[in-house]
Amino acid sequence: MRKTSVRPAPREATRHEPKTPVPEAFGADAPPPSSSSGSVKRGALDSLVQGSLVELFQAYSVALAPQPRTSRDPLPKLPEICAWIGFTHGTQKRVGRLTLSLSAAVVGLMKVDLGGNRQVDWARELCNQLMGRIKNRMLQFNVRLQAGLPSSIDAKLLEEQLRNAPTTRSYLGRTLRGDVVVTLDGLPHEAELVYVGPTTVANEGEAIFF
Q1: pLDDT in tens, 25-48
Q2: Which residues, including other chains, have CB under 8 Å from residue 171's CB and lie 6 or more apart?
Q3: Is the CB of residue 54 less than 8 Å from the CB of residue 64?
């Protein structure tokens, strides 16, 4: 009897997955989008800040949807409760500032017992915790931020200051009860950053009112 030879099925072309996938909002353990040279691609800092903001509000059972950011976006109108925190980094002690603005209605969504009218105190604490999350994630670029203490600021005064700061990045997040606005100035540009690997950091910590 004649033997019938069976030819193996042709192999499918191998798909080459990117070495560094681009996550929607990377955290402390996820690598940022980078090029083959190891430099960080444009948009990595935006993902870092937006991811930190989403995780912060998730920690208090509030769903927040970050809106796409473009360099041509005008500054969003700031909600009435505003806080800011300054920071420095590098051997030359470059100065930066992070601000967080939200409404009383958004504060009301959070699963926290403020014990009275302490919404301004809570905004300062949220700003401090957001700074902590960003600070932890910047360690993967070997950038060490030294943060100060958070303070309150009037919304109109902050809007006036931001109008005179054209290089400030602004971020808008939407919740069921209103918008959250974050502005950030003073971080290195993506072109200056090189991904050095994940770092083990402590949790952002419990709430401490100032």
Answers
A1: 445 455 565 544 556 778 899 999
A2: 46, 49, 50, 53, 66, 67, 69, 181, 182, 183, 184
A3: yes
Domains of the chain: 44-189 (3.40.1550.10)
Round to whole Å and give the CA distance between 22 and 34: 8
**For position 117, what pLDDT does the model report?**
67
For residue 174, the tally of other CB atoms under 10 A from its CB is: 14
Q: pTM of the entire structure?
A: 0.78
Distance CA 126, CA 119 (A): 10
DSSP calls for 25-91: S--SSSPPPB-TTSBBPTTHHHHHHHHHHHHHHHTTT---EEPP--TTPPPPPPPSEEEEEEEEETT
Beta bridge partners of 27: none
Neighbours of 158 (CB within 10 A): 20
Per-residue CA distances from 198 to 30, 187, 188 (Å): 7, 19, 19
d(Cα 100, Cα 151) in Å, to the nearest integer? 11
> Can you read off the two tokens belonging to residue 124?
């300062």
Distance CA 68, CA 82 (A): 22
Phi, psi values for residue 138, rounded to 5°: -70, -15
Task: Give the model confidence (pLDDT) of 122-176 as tens digits.
Answer: 999 999 999 999 999 999 999 999 999 999 999 999 999 999 988 899 999 999 9
Calculate mean pLDDT across residues 93-104: 96
